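Module 6 notes. Inverse folding takes a fixed backbone as the condition and produces residue identities as the prediction. Think of it as a translation problem where the source language is geometry and the target language is the twenty amino acids. Below is one complete input and output pair. Work through it position by position during the lab.
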């Protein structure tokens, strides 16, 4: 556990290994894109379909102009 904390907080001020850079790059690139994709897919699945309901509602009435 102490090795993990030492690596995580870099208490010896050593240069991180190549594996640490790869993991950080993976987190920085993949995780935001994955979370955005999951958010959009949930939003699209739960949203009502407004285009089909608007088309079936019929023609809209025109407002009369005041003279």
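Target side of the pair, the amino acids:
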């Amino acid at each position: 556990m102490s090795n993990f904390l030492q690596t995580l907080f870099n208490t010896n001020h050593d240069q991180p290994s190549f594996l640490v850079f790869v993991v950080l790059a993976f987190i920085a690139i993949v995780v935001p894109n994955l979370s955005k994709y999951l958010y959009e897919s949930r939003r699209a699945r739960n949203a009502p379909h407004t285009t089909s309901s608007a088309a079936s509602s019929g023609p809209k009435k025109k407002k009369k102009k005041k003279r």
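Reference fact for the lab report: The two ends are 82 Å apart (CA to CA).
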